[in-house]
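A protein record pairs a chain with a discrete description of its three-dimensional fold. The following entry can be read in just this way:
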Amino acid sequence: MRQIFVALFMLGFAWGFEGLQFSERLIKNGETLLIEYGEKEGRIPLFIEMNSKKFPFFELPFKPRYAYVLIPIAYNTPLGKKALSLHYLHNGDMKKTSVGSVEIVWGGYKKEALRVDPSKVKLSAKDQ
């Protein structure tokens, strides 16, 4: 029975801990992460924190008790796991809880390089 409880807890953590639903837990750099929040036990989401950056929740007027946050992942973001924290109001008190992490993986983008005809470039003596 204990193993079932632990398995259910871990499944809940992976797929939507604290009422959150992640578009993906493995995200390529250069993409955007969507996190949806359905109100749970009177909690009002304020923002998600990742790498000391705060991303606010937005509400839809036609969908009550629903909020979402979009987290853009720059293409030059270092790869690896990034911890996420949910900041929310519960009974008038501001609280913070860890909601796991997402893993940033390489997006497979071609290198960005500026190619200029050598005849159009005049370098200074110190740059040669």
